[in-house]
Amino acid sequence: MASHSLYFLLSFLSVSYVTLLSESRTTLKLNKFVLSVHQDDKTSLYVADIYKRTPPLQIPFVVDLNGRLLWVTCEKNYFSSTYRVPQYHSTQCARAGAHYCHTCSSKARPGCHNNTCGLMSMNPVTGLSAMGELAQDVLSIHSTRGSNLGPLVKIPQFLFTCAPSLLLQTVLPGNVQGVVGLGHSPISLSTQLVSYFRLSNFTSTLALCLSTNGVIFFGGSPYYMYPGIDISSPLGYTPLIISPQGEYYIQVKSIKINNKDVPLNATLLSVNGRGVGGTKLSTINPYTILQHSIFKSVTEFFTKELSDIPLVKPVEPFGVCFNLKSINKRSRVGPRVPNIDLVLHDQHVVWRIFGSNFVVEAVPGVSCLAFVDGGLNTRASIVIGAYQMENNLLQFDLARLRLGFSSSLMFFKTSCNNFNFTALP
Ligand SMILES: *[C@@H]1O[C@H](CO)[C@@H](O)[C@H](O)[C@H]1NC(C)=O
Ligand SMILES: *[C@@H]1O[C@H](CO)[C@@H](O)[C@H](O)[C@H]1NC(C)=O
Ligand SMILES: *[C@@H]1O[C@H](CO)[C@@H](O)[C@H](O)[C@H]1NC(C)=O
Ligand SMILES: *[C@@H]1O[C@H](CO)[C@@H](O)[C@H](O)[C@H]1NC(C)=O
Which positions fall inside the Peptidase A1 domain (predicted)? Predict the structure, then answer.
């Protein structure tokens, strides 16, 4: 009789254990997250509103694809019941790679404590860096099933830095409070999401779909855009190369215009031992930047292929401009001009760029090639900028280190503006 009730008790315990387990499985099913990003009119930078602190507050951040961490200014109006500072030599400091002991001589406040650890934070537009206090607070982000917003989920101890407000300067959009880094670094937003939710290899993925009102996904496909199109199928793939600074590079082996090879210095196209050369992707540069000799070859070649269209005086910062009226025949993917192909690691893997991603109306009536001369001493020879990435899905697979790319979503009759941000319970 006694053993019978023990058995009953055990089976009751195991039932509730299974219930608990399946509940935690349900939470684990939240394996995809989403941020809405909009483009700032004045600076062309992308801004994401992120929920931080307790009670939660939506704070605007500039999105830096290659940024190492999230930094925010804490000097004014930082009210949160969950702000914590890891002590110098703590595991959090080790995880963040912060080996500098931070002290502060003013009154204690968020960003100002003694015996904490300091970490450099950078304004990616000016390159200016400053020391900030490593801190922890709640960060909340919307889950998604691939379309619509699901419940907000909390990361209770998100690591970031409290940077001095001098880093904000005027070059960043007016209301912005900091920068959110998505780089391949220990405490970037992408890395902390992957490790907190223990996302499996399949889902440790960051996907950018940039446009005026675009979207960033964390987690694997599918990603649905109105009217119900999964924009992740099909994609082309090329290896991702991670620089020592945790920045995202790809290998561009050659460039073709109208299916003809543009003569280029191959040395410049590959990254050398000192991390110079190669092709980087960046959300901070509004337009693609080409090292001077590549810029000259590409623009001269393009002009030759466009011989029947009269050039006009170039508008800064561009080098080649023409009369919009002469190319006003448009297709779905922008003006009818020759395509530009980036030939990647394999000659059969090509990122085709259509006019909508490289012809920009610089002033009314004048269209320009959206490439900027980077001069002779660029670190990366090609920096693929935001205009060229717009309305393309770019899926950074952080486990397999490969980049999936869709080319222009206009071909799928959709765009990155078409994510449905209506919240579902
Ligand atoms: C840090 O220590 C110094 C020296 O002991 C002290 O003057 C200062 O007020 C302390 N700062 C804070 C934020 O407690
Ligand atoms: C190609 O670029 C490399 C690196 O800038 C330079 O040293 C070399 O002289 C260039 N080659 C030619 C043929 O211009
Ligand atoms: C996950 O990724 C790591 C590192 O790339 C690899 O070593 C491991 O085999 C992968 N695991 C699975 C299940 O694919
Ligand atoms: C967005 O999603 C909501 C909720 O599912 C739906 O009612 C609405 O029709 C959707 N909007 C569009 C434009 O598809």
Answer: 46-406
